[in-house]
From TrEMBL:
It is a peripheral membrane protein. InterPro entries: AAA+_ATPase, ABC_ATPase_HisP-typ, ABC_transporter-like_ATP-bd, ABC_transporter-like_CS, MetN_ABC_transporter-like, P-loop_NTPase. It comes from the Bacteria. PANTHER family: AMINO ACID IMPORT ATP-BINDING PROTEIN, GLUTAMATE_ASPARTATE IMPORT ATP-BINDING PROTEIN GLTL. This is Peptide ABC transporter ATP-binding protein. SUPFAM superfamilies: P-loop containing nucleoside triphosphate hydrolases. GO terms for cellular component: plasma membrane. It comes from Micromonospora wenchangensis. Belongs to the ABC transporter superfamily. Residues 4-238 form the ABC transporter domain. GO terms for molecular function: ABC-type amino acid transporter activity; ATP binding; ATP hydrolysis activity.
Length: 242
């Protein structure tokens, strides 16, 4: 059963086509890695899925519901999706615990004690229990990004969208964030991640999609896409970056 289906997704900015009839299917518990040059449309696709952009054509379906229908309430959809960005976007004036419990309390109307208990458990699971009362500026970049992921998980999402979540980190901090994503996969979380960490995509993804000019040019298991790419554009891209 597909959690996410994108069919013929088209997005233009000022007459420039950025997503050009893009198709993508993500099954339950699957991890899909989006790779491709800067500007190929990875972030725009993730933003479309989270209804941060309106489509110019095509449909997006989440758990069988056509969420790209303009009559759908975006807030209701976003409650089922966790999104994490390159720049962690934690609220600087809120503690770690407050950052994580904000949406569960405000959006999901959970009781404070209940939301805090869940947040502390999630933080403990990623080794951040002792940072619950700290403010973001007291945390390393890797810790902040792990909190941002915990914050997204606190909504118990059906689907996680991760957009270059290690790109802003110092190299020595990348590993702890990747380890967390690895654990999420082991827990069965369905994820779509845009990444330029090819080694990680190879290891963690069930399916790799190579985007070029707003289309999926090649998709398949990582061993196949990285090992025997069939499309000249994929080969060219991989030659340049590996
Ligand atoms: P990627 O994440 O693969 O690097 P993006 O989805 O960010 O690619 O961008 C794809 C193209 O769309 C780029 O050329 C970018 O400049 C353009 N683009 C993205 N967002 C906007 C926007 N809000 N307005 C205009 N152009 C945009
Ligand atoms: Mg991007």
């Amino acid at each position: 059963m597909a959690v996410l289906t994108c069919q013929g997704v088209r997005k233009e900015f000022g007459g420039r086509v950025v997503l050009d009839g893009l198709d993508l299917t993500v099954d339950e518990h699957q991890v899909v890695a989006l790779i491709g040059a800067s500007g190929s449309g990875k972030s725009t696709l993730l933003r479309c899925v989270n209804l941060l952009e309106e489509l110019d054509d095509g449909t997006i379906t989440l758990d069988g519901e056509e969420i790209s229908d303009p009559r759908v309430d975006p807030d209701r959809v976003r409650r089922r999706i966790g999104m994490v960005f390159q720049s962690y976007n934690l609220f600087p004036h809120l503690s770690v615990l407050e950052n994580v419990t904000l949406a569960p309390r405000r959006v999901h109307r959970r009781a404070r004690a209940d939301a805090e208990a869940q947040a502390r458990e999630l933080l403990a699971r990623v080794g951040l229990a002792d940072r619950a009362d700290a403010y973001p500026d007291r945390l390393s970049g890797g810790q902040q990004q792990r909190v941002a992921i915990v914050r997204a998980l606190a909504n118990s999402p059906r689907l996680m969208l991760l957009d270059e979540v290690t790109s802003a980190l110092d190299p020595e901090l990348v590993g702890e964030v990747l380890a967390m994503i690895r654990d999420l996969k082991a827990d069965g979380m369905t994820m779509v991640l845009a990444t330029h960490e090819m080694g990680f995509a190879r290891e963690v993804a069930d399916q790799v999609c190579f985007l070029d000019a707003g289309r999926v040019v090649e998709a398949g298991p990582p061993a196949r896409v990285f090992g025997e790419p069939t499309q000249p554009r994929t080969r060219q891209f991989l030659r340049r970056i590996i």
